[in-house]
């Protein structure tokens, strides 16, 4: 379903994956449960829409849509910094085990209702007109 900003109509869905530093399994129990509470709040603050969230002991999968006014690097920075700050404040043991909660790396995949083949076919048809 398309969404709109003042100047754009968009359908940008991201599959985001990131890990704790050294891929340590620190997202278990209360830490993982709290992260699962925090992420929907932060997604909403970025005017995003959360579709699915899976918190594993050593990584996070987030499937969400965000407006085109935000670069994906900004989205990841804000999600990771906000959750790191809050989790390390609430769970002091995270400060002693890790120099920082998250690695700098992340994975991004995009999904939409139109495949690359459909877009290519449409563009080829436009060339013929």
């Amino acid at each position: 379903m398309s969404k709109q900003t003042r100047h754009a109509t968009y359908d940008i869905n991201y599959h985001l994956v990131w890990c704790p530093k050294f891929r340590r399994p620190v997202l278990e129990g209360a830490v993982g449960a709290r992260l699962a509470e925090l992420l929907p709040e932060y997604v909403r603050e970025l005017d995003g829409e959360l579709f699915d969230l899976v918190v594993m002991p050593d990584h996070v999968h987030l499937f969400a849509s965000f407006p085109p006014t935000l670069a994906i690097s900004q989205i990841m920075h804000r999600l990771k910094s906000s959750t790191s700050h809050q989790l390390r404040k609430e769970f002091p043991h995270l400060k002693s085990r890790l120099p920082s909660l998250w690695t700098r790396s992340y994975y991004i995949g995009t999904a939409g209702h139109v495949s690359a083949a459909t877009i290519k076919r449409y563009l080829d048809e436009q060339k013929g007109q």
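The helical segments are 29-45, 72-90, 93-97, 116-127. The chain has one domain: 3-127.
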